Inverse folding.
């Protein structure tokens, strides 16, 4: 069963505990298609993805970063990376961060719409995390990991947080 976009946005929640059930190849492809449907500045599409199904690699990442603990039970992770040769030069170089963040959000929403759980574990801009993943995953110098998305069937029911805050809304001027 799939849901509409507004329902997916308003009911998505970060899932941090997963059942051991594997995610099939068609589901992985759908998540990646959703990611690559994200908008990107100048249509540069700087994203690259490392799909991790190896229990050993998932546990190595989890052991390195406390915030990556969901990888202990996740059957799948997608490392969302930016290709620094596929972005703008000069002041626009960091548009890759926005583009890959949009791709990451699409993965989270697609997972939820597919009745999967997911959570975004941040990597960039912390150099210790970036360097660890570059080494572990043998990323070329031009590829920078933005984050790791743990994906699986939820082992817990997580209620979405109501983040509506009218104090954060300003019209025309701050």
């Amino acid at each position: 069963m799939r849901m509409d976009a507004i329902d997916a946005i308003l009911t998505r929640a970060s899932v941090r505990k997963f059942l051991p059930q594997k995610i099939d190849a068609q589901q992985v492809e759908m998540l990646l298609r959703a990611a690559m449907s994200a908008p990107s500045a100048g249509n540069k599409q700087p994203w690259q993805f490392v799909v991790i199904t190896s229990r050993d690699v998932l546990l190595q990442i989890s052991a390195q970063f406390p915030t990556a603990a969901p990888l202990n039970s996740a059957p799948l992770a997608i490392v969302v990376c930016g290709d620094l040769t596929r972005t703008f030069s000069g002041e626009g170089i960091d548009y890759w961060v926005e583009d890959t963040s949009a791709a990451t959000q699409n993965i989270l929403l697609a997972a939820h719409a597919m009745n999967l759980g997911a959570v975004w574990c941040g990597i960039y801009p912390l150099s210790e995390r970036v360097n660890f993943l570059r080494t572990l995953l043998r990323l070329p110098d031009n590829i920078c990991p933005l984050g790791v998305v743990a994906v699986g069937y939820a082992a817990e029911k997580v209620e979405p947080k109501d983040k509506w805050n009218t104090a954060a809304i300003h019209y025309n001027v701050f």
